[in-house]
Amino acid sequence: MSLPAKLWLKALTVTVTSSNSAQFSSFTQTVQQKNPSVKTLLSIGGGGNDTIADTFASMASQPSRRKSFIDSSINLARSYNFHGIDLDWEYPDTTTHMTNFGTLLTELRAAVANESQTSGNTELLLAAAVFRSADYYTINYPIESISNSLDWINVMAYDFYGSAWNSSRDRTGPPAPLYNATASQVNGDAGITSWVEAGLGADKIVLGLPFYGYAWRLLNADEHGLFAPADGPADGPAIRTDGSINYKDLLDFISQNGTQTVYNATVVTNYCYSGTTWIGYDDTQSISAKVSYAKQKGLLGYFSWQVSGDDNNWALSQTGW
């Protein structure tokens, strides 16, 4: 479980805004009420924001900045009773950034071990959110540093296709396919395999599951399969400008519009369509297949982005339980 922390650009340290302090203070206690064994991690960073990525790059480039970041991260995790730290740098996009990321992880692990010895507390867990594959568009992740420094990685095996992106706005697509539909298609299995082949143990890999989908506007309502001609994001009351829609909201769309639903077991994806609106997503069938895949491959586990997108009955969450 995690909550986002604000990575301040000016100070290059991690802080929590006063408006979020109460929520951070009660988070671990709240989630442990029904299951005291649950561990919570403080997640630092995020996607969809170049400023965050640039801040990570700047921080990781100099020893003094890394130390300031590491010290403040550990202090913050301890002060709010988290059990660990999760780094979400989206993404180290140069060879230098990847090298610096590896150095950051090595130094963070050393600092966490030292803090544990000094304080007598259990050593903080360390994790990181990473790209779908072991390289970010041919720029390799520092596998040795990751393997030696992190307890696990959270592989973001989603956002392969999106209706607002130049690369995929003109064709519908499965946002998080587990397998190929075409020879050139990116998929979750290929990404997981790349991490294992790069040398990371399967027991350090956690598979990401999306609790949302993407909506396209079809050019022709009669062409409504995978990779059908489209023209960017569809419109709708719960559809965001980037075409994304939470699982719970797309269920409302399905029930209110006489929508046709399809599960493709070959690709492992769901999609639905009504008129010229087409939505690709993961429903319980896809989630179940991916959970089985994670177990079969000996992965450490699986995570969702994000639980708040689930429906009122927690259908996706319970499928993964």
TrEMBL record:
Cited InterPro entries: Chitinase_II/V-like_cat, Chitinase_insertion_sf, GH, Glyco_hydro18_cat, Glycosyl_Hydrlase_18
Any single Gene Ontology cellular-component annotation: extracellular region
Residue ranges of every copy of the GH18 domain listed in the record: 1-321
GO-annotated biological processes: carbohydrate metabolic process; chitin catabolic process
Gene Ontology MF annotations: chitin binding; chitinase activity
Top-level taxon of the source organism: Eukaryota
Protein's UniProt name: GH18 domain-containing protein
Species name: Prunus persica
Lineage summary: Eukaryota, Viridiplantae, Streptophyta, Embryophyta, Tracheophyta
